Structures are given as structure tokens and as C-alpha cells.
């Protein structure tokens, strides 16, 4: 009996300590007569008519905030509005100036509404309005027209603080930290500039150059999310929309240059999720000079390649084909003597990679697309003239291809030019590379469709022996032309066979033209062209 009496007394004590719900006090149909409520108690109210509007006034006391000096006196508020049968309810939040901060009408008839992460400061006044969404239909009779509003205060640290649905309201995003936010509400009637979409804006302030930032956004069920990044001039740097519902997005290697950037996070189709948050992370790190610097999608923004090693094994750079249709430009400049470049781009899942070699004006010198999906592409014997800019461009074969989760490696080997080396481009007659009698040149037939031209000068008519060594998987054709373009000889061989031909060459210039069969190429094995007097 004593134990039962004890628990009876405890239960009475606990019941007495439990905070009773607030109740609306009619009339409360405007800001001036809003019902006063407390942030730590739920509210009960009634919708008495189709046009009934219930206003509530809340002031969050200083006692719920940390009082340490220097701590930001702000918390975030979550509001849950219960459902009423056959009614479509709307909930709105206003500041002390009666400016509307947020409005939510996502769920429809017979369902409740939720607003998350509303930033509230100590001892400031906020208004909450509950109403039935305007309809020409008559008010449907229901067994009950009562509703309940519940409140939950959370710490601001690590969370977004609404409203941040415009660029001018962007909230600071700390580097190397994460922030939690919600796609809530699904639609935002206040945001006219954003076509009434709910948007979350953040600002990153960077004071140091030679640093890179990576961004990642976690996936949220039923949401197809988008990230957009803007520079300090409000120019859109990129729009990331690679993946679909429930999947995250990411962007890597943004070169800071000591500037401010604003980041927009939103749902692609104005869908919401008030129950599960997204996480937006930033990774801030020193530029290792071995990564692309985004944005580098044109010649003027090309990432500089610094060649510190001459000869094998060369140097390696990392990049992403991200977002869809991304094009990565790299700039290379060599001083001193003439050099030869070999470049290789490793395969990336779901992408058919293309590697381009371009001159200082951006004109295409060589387009390498020998292989297929997810395979490596190789540029051979690219000629580098001292003190001129050259560009390497990496892209997918389709503007729909992307992979933000797997980087490619761009491997470079730069060697001093030697007379026995081929020097690309030499794929047309007026770019023919010189060769002398008694010498040879080692060359590649790559990419697919490659043609190699060589120029030979003899002082008097002479009989010469031309030979081209065999190349695995390739059938060769050798053509020899006179100075006026007349064909002297033509010989074609089978795959992987040597070509040899003895011809009498008149005095002056002659041209040697070598090509592979249709759709044939070999980036691994060189052929050797030799010309000797017979």
C-alpha cells in the first residue's frame, strides 16, 4: 500500500509539473489582437469559419539562450501544425515588423503542415498565423475543427537559419564544416525572383589564394536536388544536376583566388521533405598543383600545367567531368628548346572520354577518340614549340555524360625533341616533317584517321629504298608524291606486315604519306620510316 501511495503522489506531482497547452483567445484575427503564446508549450485552436484566421504572438525569452559572451543569441524553431479533416491549412511566420518570413501549404486537405529551421533571436517578437487555404467551396462540416501547433527549439550551430531563400539573405557557410538544412516548404509564394521555388542560399568567404574548395550535398528521399555556384559578381559559375531522386550532388576543385562565393541549394521540381535533412559540406584545402582548377571550361580559364619533370615518368593531374557536358581546359607552355608531348587520360565509369590537343588560338591540332566507353585515350608525339601556349582539353563524347564521384587522371610526359621523333601535327602536306636520306623517324598512327606526312629533298635524281616497319593491328599504306603533287608510287600492305618500295625520285622535294586502314590506330607501338639510297 505504501508503494502504491508513493507512486500516486509522484504521478500527481509530474502531472502538476507538465505544462498545459496554450489556447487561442478569440478574437485573434489580426496582428493587433494576436494571442500570446509560449515557445515551450503547444497551442490549441479552432477554425470557426472558412475565413477564420488565428494569429499568435511569441517572444522567445533570453533564458533559453546561452549567456556566454560572444555566443550568437539565435536558435532555430520547428513548427508542427496538426491536421483537420477535409481542411487544407496554411501556416505562416512573421517578424516583429509583420514582414512575412515563411509560409507553408504543402500537404493538402486533411493533412498537417511543418515549417523547419526558422531563425529566432532572443527577446524578439514573432507572429504565427493559421488559416484555411482560400477556396470558393463551402466549408465542409467535420466532426472537429480543432488543431494543435507544437514547437521545438534547437541550437543554431550546424543548421541553416530560415529565411535564407534569397541571395541577399544568404547565410555564412563555414569552411571545412557541414550545415544541415531542409527542402521545406516545397513551394515558396514569397520568392518571386526564384519563380516561387523554395531556395536555400549560403555564402562562403575566402581570403586566401591558391586554395581549392570541394562541395558535397547529401541525398534526401524523394528529392532531385540542384547546386548552383555564383561568384562575387553574381555570375553563375556552374549548375550541378547530375543525379536523380534521393541522390546527392558534388562539385570539386573550385579555385578560390581570394573571393566570395554564393551557393544555391534547391529541389529541381519544387518537392519538399520536412522530416529528413540534407547535409551540405565544404572541404577547403591548399592547391597541390596536381588538380584541375574549376571553372576551367574555356581557353581563358584553362588550368595551368606546370611541367617540372622532363622525361619519364612524367606528371599526373586529377579532374572530374562534372557537371553534365563539362569541358576541362589545361594550358601548357615550354621554354628553351623544342619538346614532344605524350598525354593520357584514364577511363572513367559511364563516360566515353575525348582528349583534344589545341594551339594557342584554340584551333584543333589533334582529336583523340580511339577507344570507347570507360577506356583510356592517348595523345602521342604532340609538338611543343618554345614559348607558345598549347592546350589539352578533356571532355565526354556526349553533353549528357558525367561522373562526379570518379576522377580521371591526366598523365603527361614531356621529352626533348630529337630528329628521329615524329612531331605532331603532321597530318597535312604543308605541315610535313622533314626527313633526310640515310635517317629514320619513329612515329605513331594515332588517333583513328591519323595521316603522317614527311618531306624529303634530293639534289639530283636518285633511286631510294623506302621502308615502313609493321604495326600490330594496323594495315599500312605508303604514298610518294613529287614536288608538283604527282603520284610517284603507292603501296598498301596487309595488317602487321612491312612495306618496302624502291623508287626513282627526281631532283627536288618529294612527299611521303603514310596512313592506316579505316578505323585503325595504335597508340602503343611505333612504326619506323627509313629512307636509304639503293
Verbal overview:
The chain is mostly beta strands. 3% of the residues lie in helices and 48% in strands. The chain is built from one helix and 37 strands. The longest helix has 16 residues, at 2-17.
Keywords:
five-stranded mixed sheet, 534 residues, 37 strands, mainly beta, 48% strand
Topology:
Layout: H1 2-17, E1 22-23, E2 35-37, E3 43-46, E4 53-59, E5 74-81, E6 89-94, E7 100-104, E8 113-121, E9 125-132, E10 146-155, E11 171-172, E12 178-183, E13 199-205, E14 211-217, E15 225-230, E16 236-240, E17 249-255, E18 260-267, E19 273-286, E20 303-304, E21 315-321, E22 327-333, E23 339-345, E24 353-358, E25 364-368, E26 377-384, E27 389-396, E28 403-416, E29 433-434, E30 440-445, E31 451-458, E32 462-468, E33 475-481, E34 487-495, E35 499-505, E36 508-516, E37 522-533
Parallel strand pairs: 1-3, 2-4, 11-13, 20-22, 29-31
Antiparallel strand pairs: 3-10, 4-9, 5-8, 5-10, 6-7, 6-9, 12-19, 13-18, 14-17, 14-19, 15-16, 15-18, 21-28, 22-27, 23-26, 23-28, 24-25, 24-27, 30-37, 31-36, 32-35, 32-37, 33-34, 33-36
Mind summarizing the main beta sheet?
5 strands, mixed
Got a strand count?
A: 37
- Estimate percent helicity: under 10%
Distance between the termini: 124 Å
Poorly predicted residue ranges: 1-18
What number is the mean pLDDT? 90
What gross morphology would you assign?
A: elongated
Structural class by secondary-structure content: mainly beta
Describe the strand arrangement of the main beta sheet, using strand numbers: 1-3-10-5-8
Strand content: over 45%
Evaluate the radius of gyration: 35 Å
What is the overall number of helices?
Answer: 1
Amino acid at each position: 500500500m505504501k508503494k502504491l501511495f508513493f507512486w500516486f503522489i509522484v504521478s500527481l506531482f509530474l502531472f502538476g509539473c507538465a505544462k498545459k497547452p496554450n489556447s487561442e483567445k478569440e478574437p485573434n484575427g489580426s496582428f493587433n489582437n494576436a494571442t500570446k503564446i509560449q515557445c515551450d508549450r503547444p497551442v490549441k485552436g479552432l477554425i470557426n469559419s472558412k475565413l477564420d484566421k488565428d494569429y499568435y504572438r511569441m517572444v522567445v525569452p533570453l533564458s533559453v539562450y546561452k549567456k556566454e559572451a560572444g555566443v550568437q543569441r539565435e536558435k532555430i524553431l520547428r513548427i508542427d501544425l496538426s491536421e483537420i479533416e477535409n481542411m487544407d491549412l496554411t501556416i505562416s511566420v512573421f517578424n516583429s515588423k509583420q514582414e512575412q518570413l515563411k509560409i507553408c501549404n504543402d500537404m493538402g486537405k486533411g493533412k498537417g503542415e511543418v515549417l523547419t529551421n526558422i531563425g529566432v533571436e532572443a527577446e524578439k517578437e514573432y507572429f504565427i498565423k493559421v488559416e484555411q487555404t482560400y477556396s470558393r467551396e463551402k466549408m465542409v462540416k467535420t466532426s472537429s475543427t480543432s488543431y494543435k501547433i507544437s514547437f521545438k527549439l534547437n541550437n543554431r550551430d550546424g543548421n541553416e537559419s530560415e529565411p535564407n531563400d534569397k541571395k541577399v539573405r544568404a547565410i555564412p557557410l563555414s569552411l571545412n564544416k557541414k550545415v544541415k538544412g531542409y527542402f521545406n516548404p516545397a513551394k515558396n509564394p514569397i520568392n518571386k525572383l526564384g519563380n516561387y521555388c523554395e531556395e536555400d542560399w549560403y555564402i562562403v568567404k575566402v581570403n586566401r589564394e591558391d586554395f581549392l574548395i570541394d562541395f558535397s550535398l547529401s541525398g534526401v528521399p524523394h528529392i532531385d536536388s540542384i547546386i548552383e555556384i555564383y561568384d562575387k559578381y553574381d555570375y553563375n559559375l556552374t549548375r550541378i544536376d547530375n543525379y536523380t531522386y534521393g541522390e546527392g550532388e558534388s562539385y570539386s576543385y573550385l579555385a578560390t583566388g581570394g573571393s566570395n562565393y554564393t551557393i544555391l541549394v534547391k529541389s529541381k521540381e519544387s518537392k519538399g521533405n520536412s522530416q529528413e535533412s540534407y547535409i551540405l559540406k565544404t572541404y577547403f584545402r591548399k592547391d597541390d598543383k596536381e588538380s584541375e582548377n574549376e571553372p576551367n571550361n574555356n581557353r581563358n580559364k584553362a588550368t595551368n600545367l606546370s611541367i617540372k619533370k622532363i622525361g619519364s615518368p612524367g606528371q599526373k593531374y586529377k579532374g572530374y567531368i562534372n557537371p553534365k557536358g563539362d569541358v576541362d581546359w589545361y594550358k601548357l607552355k615550354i621554354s628553351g628548346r623544342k619538346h614532344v608531348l605524350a598525354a593520357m587520360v584514364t577511363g572513367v565509369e559511364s563516360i566515353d572520354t575525348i582528349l583534344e590537343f589545341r594551339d594557342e588560338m584554340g584551333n584543333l591540332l589533334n582529336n583523340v577518340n580511339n577507344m570507347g566507353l570507360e577506356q583510356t585515350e592517348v595523345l602521342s608525339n604532340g609538338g611543343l614549340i618554345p614559348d607558345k601556349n598549347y592546350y589539352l582539353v578533356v571532355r565526354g563524347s556526349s553533353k549528357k555524360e558525367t561522373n562526379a564521384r570518379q576522377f580521371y587522371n591526366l598523365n603527361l610526359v614531356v621529352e626533348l625533341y630529337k630528329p628521329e621523333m615524329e612531331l605532331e601535327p603532321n597530318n597535312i602536306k604543308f605541315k610535313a616533317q622533314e626527313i633526310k636520306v640515310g635517317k629514320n623517324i619513329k612515329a605513331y598512327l594515332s588517333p583513328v584517321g591519323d595521316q603522317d606526312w614527311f618531306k624529303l629533298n634530293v639534289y639530283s635524281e636518285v633511286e631510294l629504298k623506302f621502308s615502313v616497319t609493321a604495326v600490330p593491328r594496323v594495315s599500312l599504306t605508303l604514298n610518294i608524291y613529287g614536288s608538283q603533287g604527282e603520284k610517284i608510287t603507292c603501296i598498301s600492305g596487309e595488317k602487321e606486315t612491312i612495306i618496302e618500295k624502291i623508287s626513282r625520285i627526281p631532283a627536288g622535294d618529294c612527299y611521303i604519306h603514310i596512313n592506316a586502314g579505316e578505323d585503325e590506330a595504335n597508340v602503343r607501338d611505333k612504326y619506323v620510316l627509313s629512307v636509304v639510297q639503293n
